[in-house]
Design goal:
This protein is of the alpha/beta class and about 350 residues long. The strands form 4 sheets. Strands 2-5-8-1-9 form a 5-stranded parallel sheet. Strands 3-4 form a two-stranded antiparallel sheet. A two-stranded antiparallel sheet has the order 6-7. A hairpin with a 5-residue loop joins strand 3 and strand 4. The mean pLDDT is about 90.
Length: about 350
């Protein structure tokens, strides 16, 4: 049990969280915002969608975080022929000619699994999505006539957003299970790009990850630490009213004066953020406030995570669905810009 004493307070754990970020930023350059958001998700205990092209370093980033928190890292590849059982067990013929069964990626590391990366999840069939959603919600599964518990596992998933053949889009109800969607983009800074091209330390991912100090913070303590953190970071009544206005504006943006050029705002949104979604928004905002050394949330803490926690869970009218990603981001930007920020 994690007990906070005068020598072991939230500021002590905050220092460790910031050290974890610093360790990741030593080996992953040009992704400071993504690193901060993933750190927030880990301490808020929320699953994450990653958005980014092939080869931008998503795997290296997640492996570095797993090393930094001392947990096991597992990965699954989305393919059209992947079946739910493939995540649970692996069958093969042994050297003696007899069938063998080994644990699959969900069970291989047992309770020590801390980060599970599902690459190109939209290439997998809906049956696979259903299994993953259940495991994400319950952090447990039943196999081989027994229950397996995965209490510390956070799921990260990315989608192939270029190729549409043999893909199965993640429905809105499934997207709502992910706390955030975090973009991982190629850095714009020319010097950073030059380093990624010519500095050979960035060409060997295994050696790069070994430069991260292992076990900066123990993965097995994060659940209890997160609960204590959520209890400790407060929101004023004025901030609560502001957050409620932001939530309602995701469903009825026109009522709050939100406008998007070329879009009929009253017909844009079919469903705004869900209660689960805004709950995740506030969890993430509390962690952001804590990382900045505050004991109470401010509007900017909500702003810091609003795009990543809200945009991916909005459901737009069919006529706008082809532009969903672009319009959802523009909508949340306009909500933040338009809804009046309270002055306390």
């Amino acid at each position: 049990m994690l007990v906070l004493t005068k020598d072991n307070r939230l500021d002590y754990w905050r220092a460790k969280a910031l050290k974890l970020e610093a360790e990741i930023n030593k080996v992953i350059i040009g992704q400071e915002r993504a690193v901060r958001l993933i750190n927030i998700a880990l301490f808020a205990r929320g699953h994450v969608l990653l958005e980014g092209d092939v080869g931008v370093g998503k795997t290296t980033l997640l492996r570095a975080f797993a090393r930094g928190i001392g947990g096991k890292y597992e990965r699954a590849e989305g393919t059209v022929d992947l079946m739910p059982n493939d995540l649970i067990y692996h069958t093969y013929i042994g050297e003696d000619g007899r069938p063998r069964v080994d644990p699959g990626p969900l069970l291989r590391s047992g309770e020590d699994i801390s980060i599970f990366f599902f690459n190109e999840i939209n290439r997998a069939r809906p049956q696979v999505h259903a299994l993953m959603l259940r495991v994400m919600a319950e952090r447990s599964l039943t196999a081989f006539k027994r229950d397996y518990h995965l209490p510390h596992m956070i799921v990260f998933a990315d989608r192939n957003q270029v190729e549409k053949e043999e893909t199965f889009e993640i429905p809105s109800a499934a997207r709502d299970r992910f706390m955030m969607e975090i973009p991982i983009a190629v850095p714009e800074n020319r010097q950073i790009r030059k380093s990624l091209m010519f500095n050979t330390r960035f060409h060997d991912a295994d050696s790069l990850i070994e430069q991260v100090e292992p076990g900066v913070i123990a993965f097995a303590e994060l659940n209890e630490l997160s609960a204590k953190l959520q209890e400790s970071i407060k929101a004023s009544p004025v901030l609560e009213e502001y957050a409620l206005d932001l939530w309602q504006a995701t469903s009825h943006p026109g009522q709050y004066g939100v406008r998007i050029e070329g879009v009929e705002i009253e017909g844009l949104v079919l469903a705004g953020a869900s209660p689960r979604g805004v709950g995740m928004l506030m969890r993430a905002a509390r962690v952001n406030a804590w990382l900045l050394g505050r004991e109470a949330m401010l509007p900017q803490d909500i702003h810091a995570v609003f795009h990543e926690t809200v945009a991916h869970r909005l459901v737009l009218s069919p006529m706008y669905e082809m532009r969903r990603t672009e319009l959802a981001r523009e909508l949340v930007t306009e909500i933040i810009r338009t809804v009046p920020v309270p002055i306390e």
